Protein 1
Amino acid sequence: MTYRADRLILAHFGVAFAAFALAILLGAWQMTVRSGLEPAFTSPEAYFASVTAHGTIMGYVMPTLFIMGFGYFVSVTTLDRPLPSLRLAWAGFWLVIVGVAMALPAVFSGKATVLYTFYPPLTGSVFYYLGLVLVVVGSWFWVGLMIWAMAGWKKDNPGKPVPLAMYGNVANAFLWLWTTVGVAVELLFQVIPASLGWTQTIDIGLARTLFAWTLHPIVYFWLLPAYIVFYTIAPRAAGGRLYSDMMGRLSFLLLVLYSLPVGMHHLFMDPEHGTGFKFLQMMLTVLVTVPTLLTIFTIGASMEIAGRLRGGKGLFGWIGALPWDRPMVLATCLSFVLLGFGGFGGIINMSYGMNAMIHNTSWVTAHFHLIYGGTVVIMYFAIAYEFWPKLVGREPLSLKPIRLQLWMWAIGMVVTTFPWHILGLEGQPRRVATFDYTNPMIAHWQNWTIVSMIGGYILLTSGLLFVWNLLTLYRGAEADRQMHYAVAVYPPHRVPSALNGFDLCNGLVLFLMLMAYGYPVAQFFFIKDYPALVHRVDLGN
Amino acid sequence: MNFGLGEFMSNFDRSSDSPPPGDTLDPITDAALEDVLKTVPQGAFALAGAAMGLLVLAWLAVYVFIFLARGPIS
Amino acid sequence: MAPITNEQELQKTEFRWAMIVTGAVTVLFAVIGISSFVMALHPPSHVESIDPATVSQSKEFAESNLGTSVDPDGAVTVRIIATQFAFVPRCIPVPQGKPVTIRVTSPDVIHGFLIAGTNANTMVVPGYVAEVRTVFGTAGDHLMPCHEFCGLGHSEMWALVRVVPQAQWQTDADGKARCDISR
């Protein structure tokens, strides 16, 4: 590894995790409010501003910055060539920072209490929306650099397979580009003109449809680095080989294809769409489980190779033989377990009519916290523990606090989200600040809510321990700064161009998006519908 | 419905006699790998199969005993 | 299973797993498909637009017409306005074990509701009349919270659905049912 971009990557990771620490603090406080314990600052104004900040940081700021840094690391280490333009990379970073500096003050001053989904006609300060646009535009710089980096490498290495980690990384760059189209159009053409006072009404059906376009694939954008690590780092960390390079490529490709044309499953309960396109997008949503189900086998087999090489015998004996003391192995296994729980909630959500059973209840909050926190963020921790020593050249003092932190995170996730599943089935709505627990019909909800609050504090403790672990790293011994990726059992010599580039992939996405969203979006321009009056939250209506 | 898997597979270069590209830090010998590949992926089949089977069963249980039991919706 | 000695054999194991995945996915498709096409279970998907600025002047959603009404043919329809930060009316009686159609709209921002312990659930989007059709099986009071953030008063926005056994179900001369008279 001759080329480095350490400062650039550390800047992205540093800001991402600083924002993350703030957001988990808010999360724990929100659960205390919901539990009826009336902590300091309890008020609807503070609660919903906090929910807006928590969602904005966890949804837009932390993962975007983390994934940008991750992508730069993967690009430099797998291609063994410098980034196409370090200057543009820094420009993208600073655009994101300026965006965050615009958006968060608007949120904390209560001028943008619209939650991170900003469903209009509720409309807040324009600085919030413009800040988010800058975050997205900054991330587009990253998208461009990743595509450019791969194209440059391919030009110099004709016919060679793009390293799997980089292939997944560029898959995520294209996925993110497609993902952001919906929310960018909604913000630029509907929400920002309204928040500037240029328009007095908004077509709500169109706005919700455009947001749904973004809201599902954004989760796969967060998830892809975890999958990239499952395929390209975890097998080696466990002391084995990647079972199949081809399945990695195929899974990344299918994740891009099927995570995009499915966002309408967020609108199953909406009155602006009929059954036809809801059913179609339900079917496509079922298909997005396929790459994940393929992945659990391939990664399972990769881990089995490692376990058996270490002497594990029998049908399941190899599991115990894995090196569980290594943070990357531990995190991967915990991530898969939590993915199982989160996936269970998810296939119930996407099951068309059954969505009515749990839509907008705490069940949904449980599902996406398990996927985001349990599957994605725990792998971000593992990635940070893997990359940070290589970025700063220091070994961790001890692996013990690292393992403790990962276990606490997984346990905290279970304690937080399992009660939410139960409460959701009982009809507890999400996004409510306080409940009247004196009402005998919901009095028993309070105990479960308090349990999940305790889970929230376990998560907070774990998150702070994570930051502590990174800080103490700087006192450690000198580390090997070389990054090594997993080798496949049969390393690819030549792969079909469909699995070595994205021309076919993007063509198929275009086709699927036109099929899935063409009519649902176009209908708002020819059916007789009525826009809604803008409701300002920052000017007191 | 095999999602084009077979087609992708047939496109692959099947020659695999050459050793993995030089990675001096990879301690795994070909003999050891060959040995474990006598049993792999039986464990992965069992684990992934059990996990997916449980998932589908749990989903079915919720579908029938909670969702359908709560009455029709349209 | 034969030992894996070349890439082709390895890919065969993956292909076999892909077939098992296909089987699992087919089960999901089949169950959802059958309940949708045979049992007519769908998410509420009635598309009907209405001008949110003039909802209260409309004939259907005029205040006097809100609440539960039973048509001469016995069909039960509930009409509700969801507005910052209350449902009108706040208490909704429905007969147990009979098909009920709930029609809701919003004159201001996005709301939504669920009826706890049932499958009744919908978004309420200004500009549209949301329609939910279901049958309430369990007699007694069910909470009906607003389930989408609609402003700072959102947490206080709850209604009550009273499922009345058919023996006690009564309506007035106009076919209207109210919580106080249905008890």
Protein 2
Amino acid sequence: MLPSRPVTPILRHGLLVLAFFLVPLSLLGVHFLLVDEFDEVGQYRVTAERTVETRNQLAQLLALHLDVETAVRGYTLTGDASFLGPYADAIPRRDAQFARLREGADSERLSQLDRLLALSDEKLAIAAQNVDDVRAGRGDDARQLIASGRGRRTMDAIRSLIAEIDAQEAAALSSLTVSGAASRRDVERSVSLLLVGIAVSLAIASLLIFTSTRQRREALEQVNRLAKRQKAMFDSAVDGMLWLDARGDILRMNPSISRMFGYTEAELVGRNNLVLMHTEYSQAESQAWLATVGTAGENGAGRRQEFTGRRSDGASFETEVAISRVASRLEAEGEPHYVASIRDISHRKRAERMKNEFVSTVSHELRTPLTSIGGSLGLVLGGAAGPLEEKTRRLIGIAHANCERLIRLINDILDIEKIESGRMEFDIRRMQVAPLLRRTEDAMAAFAQKHDVKLTVELPPWPQCIMGDPDRLEQLVTNLVSNAIKHSPAGETVEVVATTHRRFARIEVRDRGSGIPTEFRDRIFGKFAMADASDSRAKGGTGLGLSISREIARHHDGDIGYADREGGGTVFHVDIPLAREQAINVSTEADKSLPLVLHLDDDDDTLVVVASAFAGKAKVVSVGSIPDARSALADGEVAAAIIDLALGEEDGGEFAIELRNSMPRLPLVLFTAFDDTAETSMADRLLIKSRASVDDLVEATVSLIARRRKEAA
Amino acid sequence: MMRVLYVDDEPDIREIAEMALELDPQFEVRTAATGIAALELIEEWKPDVALLDVMMPQMDGPTLLARLREDERYADLPVIFVTARAQPSELQTFSTLDAVGVIAKPFDPMTLSEKVRELLE
């Protein structure tokens, strides 16, 4: 009769408390009921005894009168005085009986007794007369008196009155018996009910206690099993496991840690985990770092990092450590705990190093013979070995071109390999788009000329700053331009155009080629992708260029794409994120009423800070060099200029003078570290970097612009 | 005349480089096959510039450069590295090693001497 589903703890406790209250309450009830019943039974017995006594006395009273009558008749008939025995003490006996009957009698009974006493007096008076008559020798009178029936009638009245009282007593007794029986049955029922209640309560309580105990035992067993299993997991994990407190002290460890680091558990528990690493972090730094670690599955959780492990003998080995905050109720109890799983990755590292070594060696080993072949062919073609016949020249030319292609192929394969293994290094920094495109233009000019294609570059009105690796982006753009040139018919133009697209700088490469065949579109960025097999021979490509280009773009958090060009041809575009302050400007670009402020400074950080400070008040064109500043001014909309005097190799002061002369009405603010140069006098405002805040600069510039506008109006 | 020393363990490449550099009539070229031979030749011949292959057995280019810099007489000898490990980041690390420049292999023999002149400027 176990509950089919587990009784909830609250319900269980409620029931138990109820049962424990019910049992004593029921017992108390039984006690009171029984005491009450005993009282009643006692009273019943008293009443019954009195009734019996009353009836007994009534019977005696009746017998007394009968005796008197018998004695008087006997005396009357015989004249023998010995018959008068019972008559002699009749009156005192009768009075004694009456006195007893009167005890505790109610008023009705008293009046009955009075009537009875009157009848008795009459009877005794008749008897006395009879006796007197006989004593006086008037035997006939006596007999006549008896015959008159007075005495008999009186006697009848006495008998009937006594019978009446007796009947009343009997009825009272019997009704007492009936009501007593009824109340006993009630008590019996109540007591039975209470006893049943007690029994049920006790049963429920026992059941609850039993199930609760069983559940607790099962839960305990389960916890034990779980703990054992977890300990087994913890202990048998191949990876080293550490349980750390908030300070990074080791609370627990598994045997793998001992194997890995050569310490026993006793040596490590209680010590800081830094003892296991070669690191320059202090304990405070390590603790601060730990505090940023989340639980697994969260952001910033399960931090995976590579550390150099330190064995007890001081030897180093490479490890990968995954660490996460322990997600449990323990945390509610105070400081967080952490679990670190440590993997010995020296094998993997060794394999990686071997692979790197191999790739490097292969590239070296392949390039060395290619250097010889390409070099020899180049020298022969260049006439270093004397003049060549036309046929020979053509054949050597083919060999030389294919040798170069092989070199490109090797370079591309190495690039792909590096990108895919995540080992390609990107040196992402603040850079401008214009120099990148100019370099590409220079590099591709000869190639374009060879294909009889014109190459034009169109730059944005003011410099675009992006975050990128100049070498990789040049590789990317060069690749797109090279593809465009290769696929353009002779006499056409390949246009390179830089624009802005949302928060990206967009570089478009437009050609008038035959377009991209439909069936080729979904694999155009794949490896060894070429529109048709003859393509590679004809164009000298490797089929890896676009694949590499896309990887490069994506490593910059950008992307690459293409579209059909109106009027024939294709437009490839690459989007690279703008540097932060330019992205800010773009975001406020919608507000065309904002004045344009030119900021010239050679320090990128200052440019970023100033551009951010102007957000919402002005649109800042941040430039790092005087030529860039000139091209930005050429656009003609600049409302104010902020200039740093110390620009590395360039002289900001000279530029400021030039600006003052060429654009006398342009508000000019010097924001610089020096204040002792002669040029400062011609500026509208001079703010020294160490003294003025960026907010001062914004306020000064904005008020100058407002004043100049008012003057103009 | 400018004395150019080319050091490489590959005889074919030594020969091609020598021919390529000699396309410049102002260049007088000699080659060495090992770092030790290069040190001897520098001592004896006193070149104006040394082109060193990076990967060579026994003594590689950077080690040879370090040996040269230890000697006061050659502290200012311009050194150019030639390497087949021509990844951009690798080229950058070589340029920090007190060399005036890096030339990637395979090089174009017809423009090799021009490049050397450019780097020396």
